[in-house]
Specification:
There is one protein chain. This protein has about 400 residues and is an alpha/beta fold. It has one domain: Peroxisomal Thiolase, Chain A, domain 1. About 35% of the residues lie in helices and about 15% in strands. It contains 13 helices and eleven strands. A nine-stranded mixed beta sheet has the order 3-2-4-7-1-8-11-10-9. Strands 5-6 form a two-stranded antiparallel sheet. Strand 2, helix 2 and strand 3 form a beta-alpha-beta unit.
């Protein structure tokens, strides 16, 4: 049975990746960060700004496509698009780019995300200052009860997950944090390079919102990441081995909210991830057993566990043991817990490196890599693979 996105199979490829340094105070504008990352990605691909005719980013990005194009020396654009829902948009940008390429709307598309999320607007500080909107009205049902931050929203689901499966925060969430930091420790680009942690370190870190501790929460980062996509045929003549888009999908569950879906069924599950997984596996003809590396969006450790279960890597309540046993290489760049929080775009770049064979924590024989986007919100995912 063919599915949504099946027409994308092996039609487009990521041919360039580029990023700024990841810091806590970039000292420059978000536009400059975006331009630096885009130029670096084009150089990595062996392409020039004149080759670009499409751009995709997040609705949350402050850098207009035409302004980034001007800053980078890009000429006419024939395609430009934005994807909503914060970190849930990450792999959606690749989906949009691949759709444009497969349909002939564009030939070479740049996806980018840039922000000063530590020195500028800090998402973790809460939503109390948002402009009036439909989204704000929905969140307003939670705000009077003190649930103002993403950590407080996720804590509700995390607590239910622990209760449902009879787990403690230390045994369930600790292994996810330790794995991420172990990989970050050997990644020179990571903020936590050279700084692994132990389970005891995780258990000793301060509470943010019970049952989430500091080491269960992703970083706040200044920086930018860009990706360049083109057709597989053209990719074969470029500088780097192509990371072929084997499939991509988006998903939103019934009664979807933005991390506050406390009344839509099983609080210890992620329906949007389940919807995306079904579409992705159907579109690619692949399944969990075919994946060599998992780059799972780790804004909070419990949602990594739930993603493993929703994508079918293990049964309900089994993900903590799955991670502890190392049954799938996870977040080999260090994830957003250890490398940087770039709304998941740096995770897609790591998926590309794994396919190329150039990761600092390379998994031998990695041919198919799953990358996912933010959960708790409408989300997206992509499988990248080697050419042939």
């Amino acid at each position: 049975m063919s599915g949504a996105g099946s027409g994308l199979r092996a039609r487009a490829a990521v041919v360039g990746i580029g990023a700024t340094e990841f810091s806590k105070d970039s000292g420059r504008s978000e536009l400059r960060l975006a331009a630096e990352a885009v130029r670096a990605a084009l150089d990595d691909a062996g392409l020039t700004p004149a080759d670009v005719d499409g751009m995709v980013t997040f609705t949350m990005d402050t850098n207009p496509e035409i302004t980034v194009a001007q800053a980078c020396g890009i000429g006419e654009l024939g395609f430009f698009s934005r994807v909503h829902y914060g970190g849930g948009a990450a792999c959606g940008t690749v989906l949009q780019a691949a759709l444009a390429i497969a349909s002939g709307v564009a030939e070479t598309v740049v996806c980018y995300r840039a922000f000063n999320e530590r020195s500028g607007r800090r998402f973790g500080s809460g939503v109390q200052d948002r402009e009036p909107s439909a989204e704000g009205a929905a969140l307003g049902w939670m705000m009077p009860y003190g649930l103002l931050t993403p950590a407080s929203w996720v804590a509700m689901a995390a607590q239910r997950y622990l209760f449902t499966y009879g787990l403690t925060p230390e045994e369930a969430f600790g292994p996810v944090a330790v794995v991420a930091r172990r990989h970050a420790a050997t990644n020179p680009a990571a903020h936590f390079h050279g700084r692994p942690i132990t389970l005891a370190d995780h258990a000793a870190s301060r509470w943010i919102v019970e049952p989430l501790r500091l080491l269960d929460c992703c970083q706040e980062t200044d920086g930018a990441q860009a990706l360049v996509l083109t057709s597989v045929e053209r990719a074969r003549d470029l500088r780097r081995p192509p990371a072929v888009v084997l499939g991509a999908a988006q998903g939103a569950g019934r009664g979807q909210e933005q991390m506050t879906g406390f009344h839509r069924g099983d609080l210890a599950a992620l329906p949007e991830a389940a919807a995306t997984a079904r579409r992705l596996w159907r579109a690619t003809g692949l399944g969990p057993a075919d994946i060599d590396v998992g780059i799972l969006y780790d804004h909070f450790t419990p949602f990594v566990l739930m993603q493993l279960e929703e994508y079918g890597f293990c049964g309900r309540g089994e993900a903590a043991g799955f991670v502890t046993e190392g049954r799938l290489p996870l977040n080999t760049h260090g994830g957003q817990l250890g490398e940087a929080y770039l709304h998941g775009m740096n995770g897609i770049a790591e998926a590309v490196r794994q396919v190329r064979g150039t990761s600092v924590n390379q998994v031998p024989g990695a041919e198919r890599v799953l990358a996912t986007a933010g959960t708790g919100v409408p989300t997206s995912a992509v499988v990248l693979g080697s050419d042939g």
